[in-house]
Amino acid sequence: MNVKHKTVFIAFSSQKGGVGKSTFTTLAASTMHYRLGYNVAVFDADFPQHSLLKMKDRDLKMVMENEALKKQAYNQFMTINKKAYEIIQHRADSVLEAAQEYVNASPVPIDAVFFDLPGTVNTPGILKALAGMHHIFTPITADRVVMESTLVFTQLMKDIIMKEGETSIQTINLFWNQVDGRESTPLYDVYNTLIHQLGISLMQNQVKNSTRFRKESEVNSKVVFRSTLMPPDERLMKTCQLDLFMDEFLKIIQL
């Protein structure tokens, strides 16, 4: 492997469950690997759920049972000539070393490694793992509990780890997820002002609320959204503005 090749370490991380970190890990990894030509890998260190490994097992079963998706998967493989990206289970306390070994040993240059990490700072090794990321993305929703835990967590990363510790972190980016157009705009304005006052980076593009974020492929479905084997359908991406989010995401990680 070319040692000069740039590999970025990325985590969608949050101290609050249910805001979409595993979902966005899958959406971003699948878009980059299957549609945009990048080579990615995923390390699932979210013990004990390991939800991404379980998702891949479900995706494989679904493709085998769904003729439309089976045909799509076959055509995709014939077109891009790439296997599915690997999802490797590992402990948080040594996941950085394992990821670097994987990158060094890979027969193809790896552009990005995504890490699905535990959602609590009490997990052994979690702060070390986060400090080893190049970019951290944190989904937020207009909920007081979510905002309080997220801002405390982000301040910890920004003011302590980035300033005082040895770290690889280049950016920490909050972004609005599950945005409902019917919700009160002033509520977002208040939170946006607070985030700006704290000096925390907030992405411009918001991801709109969609039931697709909570659904995987169904038996009779002809399109996919959240899948480890195929990229999200482009029309569905536009519906929730995930396409605009990915454009901004790629500019931030500079790939």
Quick structural gist:
This protein has helices spanning 21-35, 51-65, 67-80, 95-105, 126-131, 144-164, 185-197, 234-239, 242-253, and strands at residues 8-12, 40-44, 87-89, 112-116, 135-140, 171-176, 201-202. It has a 7-stranded parallel beta sheet, with helices on both faces.
Q: Please report which band the strand proportion falls in: under 5%, 5-15%, 15-25%, 25-35%, 35-45% or over 45%.
A: 5-15%
**Percent in helix:** 40-55%
Shape: globular
Structurally, the number of domains stands at 1
Radius of gyration, in angstroms, nearest whole number: 18 Å
Q: What would CATH call the homologous superfamily? A: P-loop containing nucleotide triphosphate hydrolases
Distance between the termini: 18 Å
CATH topology group: Rossmann fold
Q: What would CATH call the architecture? A: 3-Layer(aba) Sandwich
Record the strand order, biggest sheet.
Answer: 3-2-4-1-5-6-7
The major beta sheet can be summarized as: 7 strands, parallel
| Counted beta strands | 7
User: Which parts are unreliable, with pLDDT below 50 for 5 consecutive residues or more?
Assistant: none
Order of helices and strands: EHEHHEHEHEHEHEHH
CATH class: Alpha Beta
Query: How many DSSP H or I helices?
Result: 9
| Secondary structural class | alpha/beta
How confident overall, as mean pLDDT? 89
Domain CobQ/CobB/MinD/ParA nucleotide binding: 10-216
Organism: Pedobacter chinensis
GO molecular function, one term: ATP binding
Protein name: ParA family protein
